[in-house]
C-alpha cells in the first residue's frame, strides 16, 4: 500500500491498462476502477441500454408520484417525446418532516401501472433498507438519493439485490468518496451501478447546487460505470435545466435525469425545477441535433 501525490491509498498490483489515472496502480475503488475493467459497463433494463457511449438515455418524470392521473399523464409525455426511463419518487427524502413524504406503497403501484401502459422501465428511490424488497419487486432500477450516498448499510444490502442501482452523488461527496460508495454495492455482489452527478454544495446561492460537469470526464476516466447527469436537482430552476442538459451531453454523459411535471406550479415537490411538458419536448428537440453531431443516439 502506498500513497499517491493526492494522498490516495493505492495498491500496486502490477495491473496495467489504466485509462487515465496512474497506469498499473489499482485505486481503492478496485472494482469500480477502469484499471482491471477497461471496457464500459453496459446495463440493460428491458430494451434500454445504459452506458457504452452510443445511446444517450433520458430518465424523466415527476419528483414525486402524486396521483395516478398525474403520473400516467407525465409517463405518456415522457414516452412520446423520446424519454427512455420513467422516474417518480414514492418514498421521498424531504428536508422537513412536515413536507409531503410520498405515496409510498401506493406510489409503487402507480409506477407499475405507468410501466404497464407505456412500456417504460421505472426508477424510484429507496431510503430505508426495510423497503428494499417492496421497491425491488416493482422498480426496474433502484435509486439511492444524494442524502444516502454514504449510508453504507443500505449500500451493502443493495449489493444483494438483482436490480441496477442508480447512485446519486451526495452534495458534499468527493469523486473518490462517490466511487467508494459505488464500491460498497459492487463488492457486496451487485455489478450494476449507474452513477449520477446531481450538483454539489458550494458558496454559490444563485442555483440550488453547483452542477459539477467536470465530474463527468473525471468519472468516465476513472470508472467503467455509466454516468448520468441530473441538472434539475443541480440548478433548482427549470430555466437552467435545458442549457445544463446540453452541457451534460457535450461532456460525455451517458444520459440525463430530469424532472417533468404536468403542472409545476401545483407540484407537491420540486415544482420550481420541473419542466412543463412543452419544455420537456423542447429539451428533447434541442438534444437531437447535438446528439447527431456527437454521434450519439437519443
Ligand atoms: C430525487 O431525485 O428526487 C432526489 C431527491 O434527488 P437527490 O437525492 O439528488 O436530492
Ligand atoms: Mn426532486
Q: What would your notes on this structure say?
A:
- With 298 residues, this protein is an alpha/beta fold.
- It has one domain: TIM Barrel.
- 32% of the residues lie in helices and 16% in strands.
- It is built from 9 helices and 13 strands.
- The chain has an 8-stranded parallel beta barrel, surrounded by 6 helices.
- The chain is globular, with a radius of gyration of 18 Å.
- The site of phosphoenolpyruvate (PEP) has 10 residues, from loops.
Topology as a string of helices (H) and strands (E) = EEEEEEHEHEHEHEHEHEHHEH
Reported for the largest beta sheet, the result is: 8 strands, parallel, barrel
Distance between the termini: 43 Å
Under CATH, the homologous superfamily reads Aldolase class I
Count of helix runs: 9
- Report the CATH topology name: TIM Barrel
Number of strands: 13
Supply the CATH class. Alpha Beta
Quickly describe the structure.
This protein is an alpha/beta fold and 298 residues long.
Main traits of this protein?
single chain, about 300 residues, alpha/beta, TIM Barrel, 8-stranded parallel beta barrel, 3-stranded antiparallel sheet, 9 helices, globular, binds phosphoenolpyruvate, binds manganese (II) ion
Amino acid at each position: 500500500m502506498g500513497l499517491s501525490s493526492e494522498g490516495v491509498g493505492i495498491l500496486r498490483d502490477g495491473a496495467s491498462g489504466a485509462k487515465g489515472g496512474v497506469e498499473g496502480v489499482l485505486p481503492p475503488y478496485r472494482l469500480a476502477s477502469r484499471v482491471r475493467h477497461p471496457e464500459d459497463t453496459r446495463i440493460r433494463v428491458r430494451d434500454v441500454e445504459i452506458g457504452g457511449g452510443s445511446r444517450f438515455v433520458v430518465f424523466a418524470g415527476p419528483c414525486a408520484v402524486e396521483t395516478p392521473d398525474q403520473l400516467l399523464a407525465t409517463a405518456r409525455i415522457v414516452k412520446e417525446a423520446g424519454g427512455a426511463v420513467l422516474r417518480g419518487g414514492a418514498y421521498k427524502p424531504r428536508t422537513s418532516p412536515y413536507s409531503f413524504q410520498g405515496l409510498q406503497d401506493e406510489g409503487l403501484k402507480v409506477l407499475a401501472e405507468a410501466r404497464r401502459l407505456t412500456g417504460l422501465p421505472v426508477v424510484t428511490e429507496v431510503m430505508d433498507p426495510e423497503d428494499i424488497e417492496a421497491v425491488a419487486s416493482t422498480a426496474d432500477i433502484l435509486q439511492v438519493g444524494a442524502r444516502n450516498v454514504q449510508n453504507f448499510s443500505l449500500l451493502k444490502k443493495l449489493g444483494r439485490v438483482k436490480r441496477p442501482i442508480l447512485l446519486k452523488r451526495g452534495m458534499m461527496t468527493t469523486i473518490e468518496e462517490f466511487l467508494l460508495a459505488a464500491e460498497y454495492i459492487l463488492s457486496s455482489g451487485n455489478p450494476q451501478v449507474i452513477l449520477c452527478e446531481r450538483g454539489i454544495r458550494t458558496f454559490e446561492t444563485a442555483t440550488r447546487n453547483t452542477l459539477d460537469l467536470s465530474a463527468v470526464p473525471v468519472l468516465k476516466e476513472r470508472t467503467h460505470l455509466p454516468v448520468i447527469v441530473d441538472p434539475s436537482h443541480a440548478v433548482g430552476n427549470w430555466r437552467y435545466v435545458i442549457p445544463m442538459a446540453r452541457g451534460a451531453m457535450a461532456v460525455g454523459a451517458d444520459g440525463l435525469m430530469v424532472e417533468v411535471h404536468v403542472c409545476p406550479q401545483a407540484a407537491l415537490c420540486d415544482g420550481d425545477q420541473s419542466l412543463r411538458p412543452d419544455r420537456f419536448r423542447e429539451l428533447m428537440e434541442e438534444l437531437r441535433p447535438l446528439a447527431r453531431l456527437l454521434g450519439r443516439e437519443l
